[in-house]
Amino acid sequence: MLGTHGRGGFHRLLLGSVTEKVVRTAPCPVLTVPPSVPALTPAPIAFKNILCPIDFAPSSLKALAYALDLGRQANGCVTVLHALEHMDDEEPNVDVSVRDHRQHVIDGARQRLHALVPEESRSSCDVDEIVTIDRAYKAVLHRAATVGTDLIVMGAQGRGGVELMLYGSTTQHVVRAATCPVLTVRA
Predict the structure, then answer these.
(1) Which residues span the domain enclosing 111?
(2) For the chain, how big is the Rg over CA atoms in Å?
């Protein structure tokens, strides 16, 4: 378990963040807790409202198993979220076939999400499946903030280098900005 500082800007670009490096490289799941989370009591923690973003990568599928297990243990709710990032907004005079294709992609993503959750998991905790059109990190942070998420459980790819330094990753953006704990899981 690691705390986050909220350090940003040029300082983070040059030095990075210890928390972010641990999230990318740890061989075990890492729980990050932002400063806005109240101090814990000695009682066991039960996360009742869990958000699990899925991009269908191996790490996100492993994160889903953790999220469903935590949801079962707490008799809680797990929201499985997939964000479609590359769907342009429709123009007013768009051909119907483009709208049909867009709906087909959304429906396909919903079916894939539904197929990921075993039936026995559905009987032990509530599971919601949501497909949205937005940047993944924005969709995760928005959903977490609007429904009072207790915990975000998500995959971490472990990539690095120039691409990560310049653009960041979805996990990195979420860990930096989340107002609830984030459990990151590597494949």
Answers:
(1) 2-186
(2) 17
What gap in Å lies between CA 81 and CA 78, rounded to an integer?
10
CA 72 from centre of chain: 18
Reading the block at residue 27, the tokens are 């061989």
Using CA atoms of 66, 72, 75, 80 in order, give the dihedral in degrees to the nearest 10.
50
DSSP string, 54-92: --SSHHHHHHHHHHHHHHHHHT-EEEEEEEE-S-PPPPT
Alpha-carbon gap, residue 131 to 113, rounded angstroms: 9
Q: How far apart are CA 68 and CA 125, in angstroms?
A: 8
CATH, residue 172: 3.40.50.12370
Question: Taking a C-beta distance cutoff of 8 angstroms, is the pair 141, 177 a contact?
Answer: yes
What is the count of structural domains for the chain? 1
In terms of Cβ atoms closer than 10 Å to its own Cβ (0-12, 13-18, 19+), residue 136 is buried
Tokens 């909220």 found at: 6
Q: What percent of the chain has pLDDT over 70?
A: 77
Q: Token pair of 36, please?
A: 């806005």
* Predicted confidence band of residue 102 (pLDDT cuts 50, 70, 90): confident
pTM for the structure as a whole = 0.84
Residue 65 φ/ψ, nearest 5 degrees: -60, -40
